Backbone:
């Protein structure tokens, strides 16, 4: 059973869960169409909503830069989308274009499916000096050309996000080869395509799926879970992934696994997503069945100067290679969740941890399907600034090493080592074997 969790974690984009060591330790770690294609483009985690009954709930909308919002909300933003089908940009088909207003202006998301996609976008430097991937699909408005702030290509679908655009309902899209097409956007409130579709499972959790465009190829999906939302407030990044069983018009099925980055219960960028295999497109869809939901919390590097950090930084003296120590370290103990380390062994692969999860929360998950991610390193405070030097295992010398300001140094037995919780991943499963979490029917 636990292998299923690890497989699901593996479908999360590696750039979201990788841990980078560069001197200081840092954290780096798609519905239906009546006779058409299917793409489930985003899995969004949001717990700000309390879904009591889907029939009683108002219509929901996807707003780029904001997330999924309720039309009855006082903060409901204006949202526009393209509802024309069969629009092409060069050899690519435009699956969806959605525009909305957020705190920083107007944000547009574009999904393209086709042959001419760009899996290796240019790299530029933003105002903070950070490298940012920029796609070669641009948006042209009143003679000005705007570049995307992010892009991703997955299984034949490329998705782009444009931020701080001017308000405009007839933008022109241009690809790398100079092909252009102009799309028309109308208020999403004038359409029949944004409505709530959902399932509830467990005591207080739900999944909602919402179509985004007239092509009915693109959906956004939302997970509501108070526990996940609460923990997410203490983390650097939180991700949700879901395994879906797709039932097509012909009665046959296929499987879709997708994930999306989540921050504070809102869709951060909106361009990540997964496409059905190409042979599953153009087959229509009857329903989506949720089989398993995986949540992954990624914490920032530990900072002892941060008073409200919910984690503990536990230290021990490094044993001799081949030896180990028994311990009872609580790395995290909040909201009914306790993450313990009961033993640490110094093996030929480095440090190996024996962990134990205690879950007394009101939103239980499968305790046999969880994973800790633990960071180990040497921590110092220099001139009022925390310095963390991560550990790696060098098989050539058979010992742990650390990259510090003074260079690479082997770590001798007896050295004080600190460990802390870097990530916590858990899964929601159906209560009965061979069952599921529920089905969202579209026909």
Residues:
């Amino acid at each position: 059973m636990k292998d299923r969790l690890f497989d699901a974690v593996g479908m999360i984009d590696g750039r979201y869960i990788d841990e980078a060591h560069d001197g200081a330790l840092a954290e780096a770690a798609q519905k239906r169409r009546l006779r058409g294609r299917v793409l489930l483009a985003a899995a969004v985690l949001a717990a700000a909503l309390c879904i009591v009954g889907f029939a009683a709930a108002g219509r929901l909308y996807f707003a780029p830069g904001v997330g999924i919002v309720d039309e009855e909300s006082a903060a409901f933003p204006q949202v526009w989308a393209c509802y024309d089908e069969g629009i092409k940009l060069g050899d690519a088909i435009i699956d969806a274009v959605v525009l909305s207003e957020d705190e920083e202006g107007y944000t547009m998301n574009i999904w393209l499916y086709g042959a001419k996609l760009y899996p290796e976008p240019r790299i530029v430097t933003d105002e903070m000096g950070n490298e940012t991937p920029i796609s070669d699909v641009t948006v042209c408005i009143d003679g000005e050309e705007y570049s995307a702030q992010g892009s991703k290509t997955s299984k034949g679908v490329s998705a782009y996000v444009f931020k701080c655009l001017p308000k405009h309902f007839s933008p022109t899209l241009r690809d790398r080869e100079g092909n252009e097409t102009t799309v028309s956007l109308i208020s999403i409130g004038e359409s029949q395509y944004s409505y709530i579709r959902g399932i509830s499972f467990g005591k207080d959790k739900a999944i909602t799926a919402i179509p985004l465009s007239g092509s009915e190829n693109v959906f956004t999906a939302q997970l509501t879970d108070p526990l996940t939302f609460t923990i997410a407030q203490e983390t650097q990044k939180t991700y949700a992934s879901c395994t879906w069983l797709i039932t097509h018009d012909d009665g046959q099925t296929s499987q879709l696994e997708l994930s999306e980055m989540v921050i504070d219960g809102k869709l951060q960028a909106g361009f990540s997503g997964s496409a059905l295999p190409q042979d599953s497109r153009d087959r229509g869809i009857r329903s989506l069945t949720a089989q398993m939901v995986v949540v992954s919390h990624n914490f920032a590097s530990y900072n002892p100067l941060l008073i409200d950090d919910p984690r503990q930084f536990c230290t021990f003296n490094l044993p001799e290679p081949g030896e180990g120590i028994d311990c009872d370290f609580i790395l995290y103990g909040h909201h009914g969740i306790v993450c313990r380390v009961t033993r640490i062994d110094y093996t030929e692969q480095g440090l190996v941890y024996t962990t134990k999860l205690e879950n007394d929360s009101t939103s239980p998950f499968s305790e046999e399907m969880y994973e800790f991610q633990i960071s180990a390193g040497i921590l110092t405070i220099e001139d009022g600034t925390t310095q963390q030097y991560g550990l790696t295992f060098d098989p050539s010398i058979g010992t742990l090493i650390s990259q510090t300001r003074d260079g690479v140094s082997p770590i001798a037995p007896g050295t004080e080592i600190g460990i802390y919780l870097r990530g916590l991943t858990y899964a929601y499963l159906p209560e009965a074997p061979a069952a599921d979490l529920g089905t969202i029917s579209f026909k």
In short: The chain has three domains: 24-187, 197-290, 304-428. The radius of gyration is 23 Å. Residues 22 and 283 are 48 Å apart (CA to CA). Helices lie at 2-10, 14-17, 226-232.
